[in-house]
Amino acid sequence: MKTKLKQIYYDMRHQPVIAWVTFFATAMSVFLIMVIIMMQNVKSAPFAPESCRDRLLLGVNLHVEDIEDQDINSSSSLSSVAARVLYDDIDGVEKISYYHKWMDDSEVSVPGGESCMAQLRKADAAFFNIFDYTLIEGRYYTTEEADALMPLAVITETVARNVLGDAPWTGRDIVIDDRQYTVVGVVRDISSLAMTAYADLFVPTALSDTEGDRDNLLGQFGAVMVVKEGVDFSHIRQQVKARYSTLDAMLAQSGMRAVYHEGPYEQEVISNDDLYSNVTPDLTSAKRMHLIIYAILLLVPAVNLSSMLHSRLSRRIREIGIRRAFGCTRKRIIADVIIENFIVTLLGGAVGVVTGVIFAATYSGLYNDYENFRYGDTPVMGALLNWQTVGVALLVCFILNIFSAALPAWYASSLKPVEALNSK
Amino acid sequence: MSIIKLSEINKVYQTKEIETIALDHVNIDVKRGEFVSIMGPSGCGKSTLLNIIGLLDRPNGGKVTLLDHTFDKSSDTELSQFRNANIGFVFQSFHLIPALDVAANVELPLVYRTGLSARKRREKVEEVLQRLNMTHRMHHMPSELSGGQCQRVAIARAIVGSPSIILADEPTGNLDSRMGAEVMNILHTLNKENGTTIVMVTHNESQARDTDRIIRFFDGRVIS
Ligand SMILES: Nc1ncnc2c1ncn2[C@@H]1O[C@H](COP(=O)(O)OP(=O)(O)OP(=O)(O)O)[C@@H](O)[C@H]1O
Ligand SMILES: [Mg+2]
Questions:
Q1: Residue B77 forms contact with A (CB below 8 Å)
Q2: Total domains present in chain A
Q3: pLDDT in tens, A164-173
Q4: CB-based contact (8 Å) between A257 and chain B?
Q5: Which of A209, A397, B113, B209 is deepest in the core (most CB within 10 A)?
Q6: What is the ipTM of this complex?
Q7: What pTM was estimated for this model as a whole?
């Protein structure tokens, strides 16, 4: 082991370019892998305010079509009526909240003041019960207030500062898209990585708000549920599916029916699929796509490393010949090449991991999924980085090593001792 | 009783257009404890012969018998283990591993031997280095040694595993006459004191005359 390290050190001094390129190629690829894993983590790992991701289900889409002609169809979010039919009082649901699926890019200002843009989310009071925001001033609006659609607002700290200046902010009036609201609560900025929970402003809505409903049962609502501990998602889905017949009955006189697309969806589906409202999400093909991309991402550095190792080796062929002459077996040569390469890969990998950690700490805000998220870029290091991420990166390191060391090792061992000895 | 027996050995090198017959029906017998030198003009097949005796290369025809073993069906592992246990090589250009210090170079054959503790290996290394007066250079790198010192290290490496055969291909070829004489002394001492069988290729007539027997080669054939 000590001899191996010395050998590597000698190598680095005598073939600096190749050794360093190998080293950095490894570091880069491990870093790349970590970034990819972190991007995946961010999509599915629970973190505040989406601490409930493991038990979260989203029912936000409805697809209706003409019974005779399926080309006549329509799909979007739900009307209040459809939301109630599909999701009210489902067995096994611990909490449910109704909210507007799409946020509004809104103008916000103090009355008569200059306005700035912010993402507005309309949600009922239960929304704050599902997502664990950090309240730093005041309170959330209540169910009664939401049902009455009172002009109250919960805003984020950055919006509060930008629009209202210094604290205290509660009790003050703001204008959002020409309507006046009173601030009742201020929450800490929300990471835009929390795709469902994110917004800059919250104002009340409730199923009693039927303004956006259309005849075909489409509208503006979505439902977000937290399932009881231990309840299977399929138990929820079966009930929802059964309720589609009620929708069909309601649509019958207009000659339409509702198409079920395996909803409501869990976090993994929400984050990995584009989630068109008229298509059943296909997680397997999305996963396959990911796998292919990862494989390619891995293959590139592996091929690169392999050729690097190869040229490093050909300079050491004579040494291999000497070792063979004094009794080193072919298997031992292969094993040694792999071990030595593994050490280099590990060292490079360590640098990659450190770079990854620094990256996560510095740029976690870059993981924004939508360009128009405005203020929410609070770092979520915890979600980005964990032992699993580092573990997988090191595992990848190992796989990379196998890939890149196998070929040159095989080449090195296939030489006759005399050929290796006499190589120049 | 012969320790090395070559019968009807052929070796042909096939390169693009030319076919070189390096060894042509060679028969050689070396007795245990003998010190044999091989002489002949450049390109007549001396190194090829030594490589085949040393199991570093396989002949195209004929049979190699070493210590009553034949190797027609031997696997790479078996050949490697046989080399490790029974053969020590000394090369004209020393062939030390530049990344390893003197002690580690000498230790090499022991590394590939099973059942030797690191301490035991170290002991043996120190023992042979002492014998060759190289103990003070133990932790030097090969690049810090003179040619004669390098060859002494190489000899130490060849004998550390106590092989019964030593194959030396022009061991003094890169050395001045004083250092060359020193190396020859070491080889003779080995041959007398340990009874090690030595086969040495040389271009030096007087060195050859000091050995037990001279085998003369010409164009891949033994001529006397
Ligand atoms: N790998 C090879 N491929 C092709 N021809 C070879 C190879 N090795 C040796 N030869 C040829 O085989 C013949 C014998 O070579 P060998 O090295 O055994 O000669 P030698 O007697 O050791 O010569 P020298 O005294 O110069 O070392 C030469 O003609 C040489 O050109
Ligand atoms: Mg030669």
A1: yes
A2: 2
A3: 999 899 999 9
A4: no
A5: A397
A6: 0.95
A7: 0.68
